[in-house]
Specification:
2 domains, mainly alpha, Growth Hormone, Chain: A
Amino acid sequence: MYASREDIGYDFGDDSKVGSKPIKPNPNIDGGWAWMIVLSSFLVHILIMGSQMALGILNMEWLEEFNQSRGLTAWVSSLSMGITLIVGPFIGLFISMCGCRKTAIIGGILNALGWILSAYASNVHYLFLTFGVTAGIGSGMVYLPAVVMVGQYFQKRRALAQGLSTTGTGFGAFLMTALLKYLCIEFGWRNAMFIQGAISLNLCVCGALMRPLSPKDIVSEKYVVRSNSEDNQAKTLSHSAETIKSNRVFSEELEKKEEATNDEVLDSVQHIEIGGKSRSGRNMYGLRILKTASQLTVTVRKGFAIWYSSYFGAASLFTNRVFVAFIIWALFAYSSFVIPFIHLPEIVKQYNLSHQDNIFPLTSIIAIVHIFGKVILGIISDLPCISTWNVFLMANFTLVTCILTLPLMQTYVSLAVVCALIGFSSGYFSLMPVVTEDLVGIKHLANAYGIIICANGISALFGPPFAGWIYDITHKYDFSFYISGLLYMVGIIFLLIQPCIQKKQPREKATDEAQV
């Protein structure tokens, strides 16, 4: 069940088996239907992440409608963004049992329902339930499968594929900001949310495009030859994968035990069904129902066993120290990106820059440059001589610098420049699935990335309300950006320290063995 070294792609010193089997590559890997998966993921990012980046428009409407504090009103947007990501680990359970396609279609229906019900809100607390929780869970059920499917269909051009698909966030933020602003002016915010709910039903179409790979296709991916850049990155992070490798024996035994139990259950049901044929035809219908229920129980048990062992078993992902540092970084990072989107319209209003912002909104500048950032950073990361990990770190340093300097800018031009840098550097989001896959392997991308976006969700959940609460006290957003930027820097330091510790430990071990 857990990733073998071929899955992860790391070199443990024995390359005799890699590439030894003449398996014909699947034409849909890195081509063919893989590009339809990219298109599906691109549309998902437009409809989900793009819409959430445009919630600053609705946030201002809710402030005027319900006359609540900025801190309380910001919880609506934060709940939607946060729950979309926080439910990641639990969506991994759905994916294990139902697959990405079914999970995404159900999520699309739930997301549309949340938008439509929110059109009838009578107070902010009603929006907490309909928009924050209902639409948020639906968004999470579509978002994670969209990311995982791209990771399954691409090996050689993963960073580029993830970059292209996640540019939907930038396109969506630009398009949805303009769309929601127009709909609110023409029809009011309630009708705007109703129309947006109807548009969100297209998520079901995106889910239908997520055609699953056959087990044979997934197995053949193990023998795909990695590029030189991936090999260099693998050497840097190889010690992190050793924990996953050591837990493989436990995982295989657990899977065999599950399969044996499943066979016993189904065999017993089939035996009863044969006996039922000889006794009475009237019992056949009941036996078929029993067999279907048994198969469903087996599927649920197997999916839950895989999900549980990934998080809490001996093969837990949390035994990977670099991955744990990655989680700590994610807890602080995302709020620094979300806060400007939610509160920039209010900041512009405070600085009396509404006229310039109406001509070309600052959030649109972030969104447009964000598109180019994801594509360019993806292309750079796929170069043979470039490490994805280093590109990821450099983009993080640029973003945290911009967050810390944003409160110092009080003219439209200076704010536009900083927003452009925020948009470009935040393109590292397209590298997050790639880095996660390099740490844990393709088999565990769903569960591992679910944990990462869950941490991001916690960050998004508390970030905007915290900024609103600080404003209610100080009547300034400056301290919100300073505090979130410093916490973000703490997360980056964890990313820098842990790989250095991982490199140092094998050297110390080798020195001790030499002395002995």
